[in-house]
């Protein structure tokens, strides 16, 4: 009875129980991600990397340099936004999450033993 009252008070599309949420998620059609186009600079870097005659360790070092650069860039953006009173909190969080992902990717790559 209480579940019926709760369901009646919720707007349509909002599940009234965990099971309803699970059912909705299992039947939901997820939209396709739009295809990203590479920037000219990224394409140029990838083309040059493919032409290199490098060892696995050298490839790893190149990847680490790129990851460190991206991680530092993201950290810098977060620091700038934290000092900006007009910055949106959602943007700060998004950049911080990306910085954290880059840090974890770097740590994982650093831990790979190629011997």
Walk me through what this model shows:
It contains five helices and no strands. Helix 4 runs antiparallel to helix 5. The model has no long low-confidence stretch (mean pLDDT 82). The protein starts with a helix and ends with a helix. It is mostly helical and 115 residues long.
Compact description:
The protein has 115 residues and is mostly helical. It has five helices and no strands.
The proportion of strand residues reads under 5%
**Unreliable runs, pLDDT <50, ≥5 residues?**
none
Q: Count up the helices.
A: 5
Estimate the mean pLDDT confidence. 82
Largest sheet: none
**What is Rg?**
22 Å
The first-to-last residue Cα distance is 64 Å
What is the SS-derived class? mainly alpha
**N-to-C SSE string, H for helix and E for strand:** HHHHH
Helix share bin: 55-70%
Detail the topology: elements first, then pairings.
Blueprint: H1 2-9, H2 18-27, H3 40-51, H4 56-82, H5 89-111
Helix pairs in contact: 4-5
List keywords for this structure.
115 residues, mainly alpha, 5 helices, 70% helix
């Amino acid at each position: 009875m209480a579940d019926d009252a709760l369901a009646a008070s919720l707007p349509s599309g909002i599940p009234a129980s965990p099971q309803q949420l699970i059912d909705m998620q299992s039947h939901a059609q997820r939209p396709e991600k739009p295809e990203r186009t590479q920037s000219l600079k990224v394409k140029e870097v990838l083309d040059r990397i493919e032409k290199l005659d490098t060892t696995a360790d050298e490839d790893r070092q190149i990847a680490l340099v790129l990851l460190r650069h991206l991680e530092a860039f993201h950290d810098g953006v977060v620091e700038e936004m934290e000092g900006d009173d007009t910055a949106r909190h959602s943007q700060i969080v998004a950049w911080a999450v990306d910085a954290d992902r880059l840090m974890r990717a770097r740590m994982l790559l650093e831990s790979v033993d190629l011997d």
